[in-house]
Amino acid sequence: MIINIIQIGLGPIGLGTVKQLLNHPRVQIVGAVDPAPDKAGRRLAELFPQNSAPDSAGEIMVAPSLEKALSLCSDKPVTAVHTTGSFLESVTSQILELAENKLNVVSTTEELAYPWWHHPKEAKQMDDFAKKNNVTVLGTGVNPGFVMDLFPIVISGISASVDSVYVERIVDAGKRRGPLKKKVGAGITVDEFNKRKATGQFGHIGLVESVAMIGAAYGWNLKEISDDLKPKVAEEPYDSPDVKVAPGDVLGIDQTATGYSEDGTEHIRLHLEMYVGARQPHDTVRLTGIPDMHVTVENGTPGDIATVSAAVNYVPLVTDAPAGLKTPIELPPPRWFGT
């Protein structure tokens, strides 16, 4: 069965998702939405670098709104892939509108991966709305959504017991897209870093959600989740075509989220370093229990393609899932669904 998709958001991740979907034999993009003036009203194929658009992009027009996009669709979409923002506050109305139009939703919004810890009110609203409209809503991605939460959860499937979880992810942001370099503060001063940190909307979004997801999956009643964000400071100059960092300025972030039980026992520690010029990138998971487990992905998981692939590979699972707001621990693990 071919699944009809509407794409919401056409930034770097959105376009990456479109490209993968357009090349997939089991899905069909029938519409696209992005209100940005340089995108709305243009053909989808025009948004790709010259001569790189898949042939199947065809004559799909980018609409400024969901209402307009649905009026242009020759075939009715059943699922929306949503790639517009990181914070639940900024996307809740978008998700509700999609659900109201009877569309399942696969979203890369980081706070949606496990919203029940920080945003229980909004999560319940989405869950109730999705059930009322008989659709499924899921937040996913590489992190949160897989590397630092679902991956350690899945490998515990052969554990007799788990006492603690430690995950370390080291990412060279210099090899990632421009928006990510800005997101981690590459090139700013330490003073500017601290000002941005004080807003509560800086650093990696979703680390606390990953801790909460692991705790929920293991049945641990976490009393507290701490989130410690520090700058990774340059000791020597870093120079690249798009980012220059002087000694003493910021290369990126060093962030740790920790989950504690009622008696103060540390059960979960997630440590993320994401900065330009990072040496020896890797993803490491250590489970203490029976048996102890230690798994390392050398060079780390490539974030952009992994985020896109997570969204694409969840499409059939979400399309067939029971109605409601779901998290990755409530659905079968994603897998490449091929031909």
Descriptive overview:
With 339 residues, this protein is α/β, with parallel strands linked by helices. The chain has 2 domains: 165 residues, 3-Layer(aba) Sandwich (Rossmann fold); 151 residues, Dihydrodipicolinate Reductase, domain 2. 28% of the residues lie in helices and 28% in strands. A 7-stranded parallel β-sheet has the order 3-2-1-4-5-6-15, with helices on both faces. The chain has a 6-stranded mixed β-sheet with strand order 8-11-12-7-13-14. A two-stranded antiparallel sheet has the order 9-10. Strand 4, helix 3 and strand 5 form a beta-alpha-beta unit. Helix 1 packs across helix 9 and helix 3 packs parallel to helix 4. The radius of gyration is 20 Å and the shape is globular. It starts with a strand and ends in a 13-residue tail after the last strand. The model has no long low-confidence stretch (mean pLDDT 94).
